[in-house]
Structure formats: structure tokens, C-alpha cells
Design goal:
16 strands, Bact_Sigma-Reg, EC 3.1.3.16, Phosphatase 2c, domain 1, 11 helices, GAF-like_dom_sf, alpha+beta, hydrolase
Length: 396
């Protein structure tokens, strides 16, 4: 099927943004002889996968799909489920540039061969990219993702995010916000540009809409400097000056700015407040000690210094806000004293996209079923080590 994904791609390009699932369904039936398809999207907390084409999917059928679809979503590999009648349901990951959006289910007349599985997976990739782009034009897929109403602050925060994961030849990066439906000021941002990866984690002050507005100003000021070619220091200083001129020191934002040189494994950092970075190497979790500078916006014309540390191939970095490491539910010791490191060590065989969920689930469990008292951000970065440039057979 040399042009199978091309046929799906053409159908998606011709479809309105709110009709991508229907366009994919028609193309998959035509090209692969599928008798049924379904698009499942992950909710904001990654607690489940929810149907787009048939929101009223009967409970029994939905639960049967959910378990197999979840295996596909977690592994990011195709999963085949052949029934007694010989028909086969193929579950394919819907991922765009490493961001996990959901799962595509295609019901085929018989178990497919490897070439057909590869072709359907390519079609799923085309659909994932289209869904990612369509979020700017329609609310349909966002509605399918939410299990409850977002607060106004949370609506702003989720719209401001770059995504929830990204994959590069040299790294895998993932992040998660909690409480997903009521998050206020905490946030993360990132940008990939050639050999440079910029990551920022913000510990927004206050709560609710005021905190979200402050975070939005801060993130956009840093983006403005970054997109104008500004260094890490210039990003911090423009954001700090912007916040100060708006609030005259009455509001400020604790922020950690990181810039990874993918070729050399060197991380440049501006530590402007409380987010912490920890390294998981082998089975050992080690805090990266940085000189903490003033939070952004505390004083006029604050100047910042860059610090550096190195990473080795296979290193995993976690960046967490104080809502994670400083959490003290019901008088217990802070989560960051011992429980957080145990949770991080337990992720060493998981991909970064699963690791952020593990640390968040353990944080929720640490609260003994009570709601989180503070916003929480976990970002996980796996550095694989630089690839040699084209033509360089010597490597590193």
C-alpha cells in the first residue's frame, strides 16, 4: 500500500478542522477495508482515553477498548486485538513530535501483516499532526479531553502550554500540571531550536485568575526575548523588568530557566526562585545545587547570572515546583525529603512521558486522598547524548 498514508493525508487536508475524525474514518475504510474506526484522546490528567467519534460508546464496549488502548498509549507501540471472528482491532498511537495525544483504533477484516500495520501507523501519524494543528481552529477535541469544567485560570494555563511532551534525536521531554482542572500560577514552557533546548518552570505566586494572568505576562515576556534571539539572561531580565513595571515589586514569579546544549551536554541555568532540579543517574537521585537569585519582578533592573552544569548520556533531569517538593499534607514531612526521591527512582525504567505521571500519582497518594493544597509542576528531561554530525564516523 505505497500511498495509503498519502490518501489519508489528502483526506485530512481537505477536511474542515472539526471533521478530522470523520475524514480519517472514511479514508481508512476506503484504503484498508476497515469496518470501524475510533479516535481516543487523553484527558488533561492522563487518567483515561475518551472517544471522539462515538462519545456515547456503550459502557461495556468502551471499557473493553479502554484497556487495550491504554496499553498502546503507554507503550507508544501498535497493539493488535484479534477476536474470535477473525476480525482484528489495531490500536495505533496518535503522537505528534513526541506529544502523546491519544490512540487510533482501526477494525480490520483480518489480522494485518507488518506492511499494513506500518501503513496504518503512518496514517495515525498524519492524523495526530492534523489534530494538533486543528486545536487552534475548533473546540471539539478539547471538549473530548476534559472530564470536568476548567476554572478560568486553568483554561488560560493550558492554552499557554507548548504541549505536554516532545521528542528529539537527543532528548525526550515531558511535563504535567496539577491540579489539572484548577491550576492557577504554576507553569512550564519549552522551545527546541537546533542544538538548543530552552526549558522554563514557573512557580506562580498567588492563586486563581490573578496568578494565571501574572504567569501569562511572565511567559510571554520570556518568549519575546527568546524569539528575538535573546540569551537566557536577557529572557530573565526582560520578564523581571516587565513584571516590576506592572506591579512595582508587589508581585513576583519564582522561575528556573534552563538551556541545554544538545551537542555538548552542558546546561546553562538562571535560578530565579524556588523550582528545583534533580538528576536521576542510575538509581541515584541528586539535587543540582544552584545559587538562587531574586525572583523575577521583585526589584527594578535586577540583573541575573548564568550557572552551568553538565549531563551525561542516559541522565534524567526532573524540575519540580514547590507544590511538589514542599508539600506537607496532614503534618507529614515534606514530600521532597524522602518520598519524592523514591518516586523518581521508581521511574528509571519508564519513558519520560510516563515518569511525570508516576511522580504526580505518588504526590497525590502522599496527600492521602486529600486535594493538593498548591499547584504542582513536574517536568522530566531525558538526555540521550548527542548524535555525531552527518559524515562524522568518529562519534564522541
Amino acid at each position: 500500500m505505497p500511498d495509503a498514508s498519502g490518501a489519508v493525508s489528502r483526506a485530512l487536508r481537505a477536511a474542515p478542522p472539526d471533521q478530522l475524525a470523520e475524514a480519517a474514518d472514511a479514508a481508512l475504510r476506503r484504503v484498508f477495508g476497515a469496518s470501524r474506526t475510533e479516535v481516543f484522546v487523553a484527558d488533561y490528567r492522563f487518567t483515561g482515553l475518551w472517544p471522539v467519534l462515538d462519545p456515547e460508546l456503550p459502557e461495556g464496549g468502551f471499557l473493553a477498548c479502554q484497556g487495550v488502548a491504554q496499553r498502546c498509549f503507554s507503550s507508544q507501540e501498535p497493539v493488535l486485538d484479534t477476536g474470535e471472528d477473525g476480525r482484528c482491532r489495531a490500536y495505533l498511537p496518535l503522537s505528534a513530535w513526541g506529544e502523546r495525544l491519544g490512540v487510533l483504533m482501526v477494525e480490520l477484516p483480518a489480522a494485518p501483516d507488518a506492511a499494513t500495520v506500518a501503513a496504518v501507523r503512518d496514517a495515525a501519524g498524519e492524523l495526530a499532526v492534523a489534530l494538533r494543528a486543528a486545536d487552534r481552529e475548533t473546540d471539539r477535541y478539547r471538549r473530548a479531553r476534559r472530564r470536568e469544567r476548567l476554572t478560568m485560570a486553568a483554561e488560560m494555563q493550558w492554552d499557554l502550554l507548548p504541549g505536554r511532551s516532545v521528542t528529539h534525536g537527543d532528548f525526550v521531554l515531558a511535563g504535567q500540571l496539577e491540579p489539572a482542572y484548577t491550576v492557577g500560577g504554576d507553569h512550564f514552557d519549552w522551545s527546541v531550536d537546533g542544538d538548543r533546548l530552552t526549558v522554563t518552570v514557573l512557580n506562580g505566586a498567588g492563586s486563581g485568575l490573578a496568578a494565571s494572568l501574572l504567569t501569562a505576562v511572565t511567559v510571554n515576556a520570556m518568549r519575546n526575548a527568546r524569539r528575538s534571539g535573546g540569551s537566557l539572561v536577557e529572557q530573565a531580565e526582560l520578564a523581571s523588568d516587565t513584571i516590576f513595571h506592572q506591579h512595582r515589586g508587589s508581585r513576583h514569579v519564582a522561575t528556573l530557566l534552563l538551556e541545554l546544549d544538545n551537542r555538548r551536554g552542558v546546561v546553562r541555568a538562571v535560578d530565579a526562585g524556588s523550582p528545583q532540579v534533580l538528576r536521576l543517574r542510575g538509581g541515584t537521585v541528586t539535587p543540582i545545587t544552584l545559587d538562587q537569585q531574586l525572583p523575577l519582578g521583585m526589584f527594578a533592573e535586577t540583573r541575573y547570572d548564568v550557572q552551568e552544569f553538565t549531563v551525561e548520556p542516559g541522565d534524567r533531569l526532573f524540575v519540580v515546583s514547590d507544590g511538589v517538593y514542599a508539600a506537607e499534607p496532614a503534618g507529614r514531612e515534606p514530600y521532597g525529603d524522602r518520598a519524592m526521591a523514591r518516586a523518581m527512582r521508581s521511574t528509571r525504567l519508564q519513558p519520560a512521558t510516563e515518569a511525570v505521571g508516576t511522580v504526580m500519582r505518588e504526590l497525590h497518594a502522599y496527600h492521602v486522598e486529600a486535594d493538593l493544597r498548591d499547584d504542582a509542576v513536574v517536568v522530566c528531561l531525558d538526555w540521550r547524548g548527542s548524535r555525531p554530525p552527518d559524515g562524522d564516523v568518529g562519534g564522541r
